[in-house]
Amino acid sequence: MPNGKHSQGPPTPLSSQADGVTGDLVRLMPRDLVFVMRFMGESQHRLQRHFQDFIRAELAAGGVTARTHPMIHLFIERHAILLRDFVFSGVSLARQFPVDEIERLTGDTTSMIRVDIWDQLKSHIETAEKQFQSQAHTLPNLLSAFEPPAWPTAGEEK
């Protein structure tokens, strides 16, 4: 980085800042945190297989088969996954449960869910900071794409 502040190896994450933002997020949980359903395992496979069959039939109706397009299975697989994820994301977003409702349903009178979430948030924030710091040496090249273009000044040849 240009100011030399980070030139002596990667510094450790600023834990006090991670603590602060983690605390802020935990305080906002009653308003901002929701739990969503997620379909897993065989349900994902079953819906994906449905969409594979559906796409294959639709393509065949238009004359596209594995015989006419030998690599079509890659297209079918990718689009079946996209359709599956679209369906499950829509359903998951439609069914959200606030943290206080989850605590009530689970009988969590000691707010252990919130403590566990705080621990996970802090750990993930620190991991994200360390990951960014480990890649800081590549930033000058990446950031050069955001610099203004070098326009010729008066008197310079083009």
Number of strands: 2
The major beta sheet can be summarized as:
2 strands, antiparallel
Number of helices: 6
In round numbers, the mean pLDDT is 85
Please tell me what the overall shape is: flat
Structural class call reads: mainly alpha
Helix-strand pattern? HEHHEHHH
Fraction of residues in helix = 55-70%
Order of strands, main sheet, comes to 1-2
Uncertain runs with pLDDT below 50, 5 residues or more? 1-7
The rounded Rg comes to: 25 Å
Report the portion of residues in β strands. under 5%
Distance between the termini: 31 Å
Description:
The chain is mainly α and 158 residues long. It contains 6 helices and 2 strands, in the order H-E-H-H-E-H-H-H. It has helices at residues 15-32, 41-61, 72-94, 99-106, 112-134, 139-143, and strands at 34-36, 96-98. The chain has a two-stranded antiparallel ribbon. Helix 1 crosses helix 5 and helix 2 crosses helix 3 (72-94). The model is unreliable at 1-7 (pLDDT under 50).
What descriptive keywords fit this protein?
single chain; 158 residues; mainly alpha; two-stranded antiparallel ribbon; 2 strands; flat; disordered N terminus
Give the SSE layout.
Elements: H1 15-32, E1 34-36, H2 41-61, H3 72-94, E2 96-98, H4 99-106, H5 112-134, H6 139-143
Antiparallel strand pairs: 1-2
